[in-house]
Amino acid sequence: MAGEALIELRGVNKHYGKLHVLQDIDLTVGRGEVVVVIGPSGSGKSTLCRTINRLETIESGTITLDGTPLPQEGRALAGLRAEVGMVFQSFNLFAHKTVLDNITLAPVKVRRQKKDEAARRARELLDRVGLAAHADKYPAQLSGGQQQRVAIARALAMDPKALLFDEPTSALDPEMINEVLEVMQQLARDGMTMVVVCRIPTDGARAAPSPPCCSAHSSPWPLPPAAARDPRPPRARAPNNCRTMP
Amino acid sequence: MNVLLDNFSLYGKGLLGTVELTVYASLLALALGLLMAGFRVAPVASLRVFGTVWVTVLRNTPLTLLFFAVVLGLPRFGLVLPFQLFAVLALGCYTSAFICEAVRAGINTVPKGQGEAARSLGMTFPQTLGDVVLPQAFRSVIPPIGSTLIALAKNSAIAGSFSVVELLGTYKTLNELGYSIVWSFVWIAVGYLLVTLTISALFNVLEKRWGVAR
């Protein structure tokens, strides 16, 4: 286990109507660890990811972030969310703001950074995700892969302790997946704590640093190189590598 | 034509009254409507209930009844104000319910994910609403709010029955003076057209300026 636990879920349960989507989930994510959550559509991967910053509420169980239990709705929750970045499947950039303003909005409003300081940092981050030239464009003017990289930069601008990726490459054309994965790999190498939800395990595995790529119940397993070429459906080949949803 | 020229100042006063009612009541309706729309999507249940009750009561009550309630009801509680202010209150509150629903419809046009992204960055509910959702909702609510304010301008005619100087009320005086009722009304209608077409033009400009561009 990599260092102390940063994100800890204990006995988490959630229903959507009659569907018991999260059943007694335990998950520990150590500091600097990359955990990949995989499973078929509708198995609750995204829900699990979204409970960690309370975009979804849970019915029972506990979630602690860096030792602090997740607060109820309100200012304390907002403060805690600022510490955990999230990257969405559909990017969710603010359509009425430029790329630069997308990144600086939260640092200025939440962290009370000065505008020029936030802008300077935003340009650094854009440079890091390879989009320095696009700072003044609007999200609609960018390709999907570029938008997702902006979304990653936006999350990084808050200097989060951990990043949650909710199927970050699922809405992308195949040729754009790589540019996003490269950014994620770099983040993993830099020691960012990450929870990556993905339908296709190879994407998640590639995002994680090698050799220990994924965690099942927080224990890292080496990823067999054959996994990427494994013809079996994701569920069948997953359990050895990753945390799978039942 | 004589009706207008002979009674220009009477018409002028009436038109001014209608314009004043429309402007003040619009400002009140916009402020309250925006606030109530915020309440109706708030994470706090009691605010949502308040907003829903506000809209349900005001939107489903005849405006004349509301005027009676304000003009006759409030003085009973010791609140005695000029009639014009009562009229602005009644018109503004009534219209705010419609503004609220238009704004809420606009809020629903903004993809939910953007609100989630804002919240996941640690922004509070008022910040999310004010910096991310409303600026985008604003663009799609310009046309319906324009219609609502035009309706407000015309609804202000009811105030004439409650001793407020406004355009429609001028017909009584003109009638007593023996002018042709048809021509009196034609010029009154022209006055209303002036007000409503101005609102239309204003909202056309707003829509050209802010309505598209994504």
TrEMBL record, chain B:
The keyword Transport applies. InterPro entries: AA_ABC_transptr_permease_3TM, ArtM/GltK/GlnP/TcyL/YhdX-like, MetI-like, MetI-like_sf. Pfam families: BPD_transp_1. The chain crosses the membrane at residues 21-41, 53-72, 79-99, 181-206. Coiled coil: none annotated. PANTHER family: AMINO-ACID ABC TRANSPORTER PERMEASE PROTEIN YHDX-RELATED, MEMBRANE COMPONENT OF AMINO ACID ABC TRANSPORTER. This is Amino acid ABC transporter permease.
